[in-house]
Amino acid sequence: MIGILIITHENLGDSFIRCASHVMGEIPQRLMHLSVMIQDDSDVVVSKAKELLKQLDCGDGVLILNDICGATPCNIANQLIRPGKVECLAGINLPMLIRTLTYRNEPLAIVLEKALSGGKEGVIHIQLESCNAA
């Protein structure tokens, strides 16, 4: 099972986990978040993240999801990447997380691909006609 670490500003990661738990009907295993606060020392946060990676990796790897490319959470995640073992996606949204959880028993490369497609396909322009069709 692929471990999932969400690294975000403030408590956004916790909110994603609570929402995913609601959608999935249970609290997913091997899913943790790391909040990055403005006053945090990056070296300390990287150290915490490495400890969480150890807890999350049962041998199949870990996917790190973060909120925005180029920001501190992403820069921290970038220091943790080990191709094929620890991968990272920026721009987390709930469809991305649900897709990740759904396919997490697949190899890391597949989970990465499914998460990316779930994130992209989850962004949809809803038009009035779409809502009435349902």
Give the number of DSSP strands.
4
Q: Beta fraction of the residues?
A: 15-25%
Number of helices: 6
SSE pattern: EHEHEHEHHH
Rg, Å, rounded:
15 Å
**Arrangement of strands in the largest sheet:** 2-1-3-4
Task: Let me know the average pLDDT.
Answer: 95
Give the N-terminus to C-terminus distance in angstroms: 35 Å
Could you list the spans in which at least 5 consecutive residues all have pLDDT below 50? none
> What global shape is seen?
globular
What level of helicity do the residues show? Answer: 40-55%
Provide structural commentary.
The structure is a single chain. The protein has about 130 residues and is of the alpha/beta class. It is about 50% helix and about 15% strand. It is built from six helices and four strands. It has helices at about 10-25, 40-55, 70-80, 95-105, 110-120, 130-134; strands at about 5-10, 30-35, 60-65, 85-90. It has a four-stranded parallel beta sheet, with helices on both faces. Strand 3, helix 3 and strand 4 (about 85-90) form a beta-alpha-beta unit. Helix 4 packs antiparallel against helix 5 (about 110-120). The longest helix has 15 residues, at about 40-55. It is globular. The N and C termini lie far apart (about 35 Å). The relative contact order is 0.18.
What order do the helices and strands come in, and which of them pair?
Elements: E1 3-9, H1 12-24, E2 31-36, H2 42-56, E3 62-66, H3 72-78, E4 86-90, H4 94-103, H5 108-121, H6 128-133
Parallel strand pairs: 1-2, 1-3, 3-4
